[in-house]
Design brief:
346 residues, alpha/beta, 7-stranded mixed sheet, 4-stranded parallel sheet, 20% strand
Length: 346
């Protein structure tokens, strides 16, 4: 088979399907050249980059246009709507590939990223999602939180166990997945207007029971900087994440036949309790804080976990951030029993 040369696209060969890379761009001129160069230098050459300029006020679109003139695989398109979701919708409409992946305009692909993701998704077949390891980097000092998140995420990815801890955090790195276009469309792609959009899509992958293909390789380099959307936009605040988790727990995993236990009465625990009350869902509320046990909050008396009646099947939502408390909770009989389903919300 004759492979396409640089700048050419082979979108017909079933054994060598085209990869469509969807990339929203917003004021990324500082990082854009390094990002696109990392795509051009991929070991896998059968791709198209659909870069959607989201009303940048810098020279981002000019940079994209310059690249598109020298490499026909690169498409520079203006976003007719506003925001990352509209940009992704536009990109997907223009995508010709049967394989879809994401990219962020301030990040870097390792040279083997597309090759490994493509190999893994083709081996796994439809109904699967290929993911890869990630590493944060920054020109400034990198926070411990980012390092811990990447370590946790890569641990899940190495075994393909990502969805087992989906209620903790987004378990599919938004710029480091690949799947068949048919599966993405079946999961309603970018039709949702809900933020954070990557976590919402992750839950829809989970809801549609996509299988995660394990990968131990670091394929994507995540750049941390002060202007990142996740640092600055309210749509990426903790409150939005918690609302999203509750929405999908009630939709996907909540079992009305089982006793529901909320464990934790801090800020997030109170938010979970209030939201469940609004939905008319009954629950038992426990916490480890002796000063709160026996108190009445929202008309519910906080109970001591030592007094839990474990005779019935239960679902436990753990909304506790303190690591010491988490270790204690992990060995509690309510967590250890085979009749319990445990969901970590922190």
């Amino acid at each position: 088979m004759i492979m396409p040369i640089k700048g050419q696209i082979d979108d017909k060969a079933e054994s060598n399907p085209l990869i469509s890379i969807l990339m929203p761009v917003k004021n990324a001129e500082i990082f854009l050249n390094e990002c696109i160069d990392s795509i051009i230098n991929q070991a896998e050459g059968n791709w198209e980059l659909i870069a959607i300029n989201d009303h940048s006020s810098d020279s981002s679109f000019e940079i994209l246009t310059s690249y598109s003139r020298s490499d026909s695989r690169i498409k520079a398109i203006q976003n007719k709507g506003n925001g990352i979701i509209r940009a992704l919708r536009t990109a997907l409409k223009c995508a010709r590939g049967s394989l879809i992946t994401r990219m962020d305009a301030d990040d870097i692909m390792t040279m083997s990223k597309l090759k490994i993701l493509k190999k893994n998704i083709l081996q796994a077949g439809e109904g699967s999602i290929a993911v890869g390891g990630v590493r944060y980097f920054s020109n400034d000092e990198l926070g411990e939180g980012y390092k811990k998140y990447a370590l946790w995420l890569n641990g899940l990815t190495s075994k393909g166990d990502n969805f087992k801890e989906i209620y903790k955090e987004c378990v599919i790195p938004s710029p480091c997945w690949m799947l068949h276009k048919s599966d993405l469309v079946n999961c309603e792609a970018f039709d949702s207007d809900i933020y954070p959009e990557d976590y919402d899509l992750c839950f829809r992958f989970y809801k549609n029971k996509l299988r995660v293909t394990p990968c131990v390789d670091i394929l994507h380099l995540w750049r941390d900087h002060q202007e990142r959307s996740s640092r600055n936009l309210p749509e990426y605040s903790d409150n939005f994440f918690l609302v999203l988790k509750l929405k999908y727990f009630v939709t996907i995993d909540y079992d009305v036949k089982k006793r529901l236990i909320i464990w934790g009465a801090g800020k997030k625990g109170k938010k979970v309790a209030a939201s469940l009350q609004e939905k008319g869902i009954a629950f038992t509320w426990v916490c480890n804080n002796s000063k709160k046990i026996g108190r009445d909050i929202y008309g519910i008396t906080l109970e001591n976990p030592k007094n839990l009646n474990l005779k019935s099947q239960c679902q436990v939502l753990i909304v506790v951030a303190n690591q010491k408390d988490k270790k204690m909770i992990s060995v509690h009989p309510a967590i250890m029993t085979k009749d319990s389903e445990v969901f970590h919300f922190c």
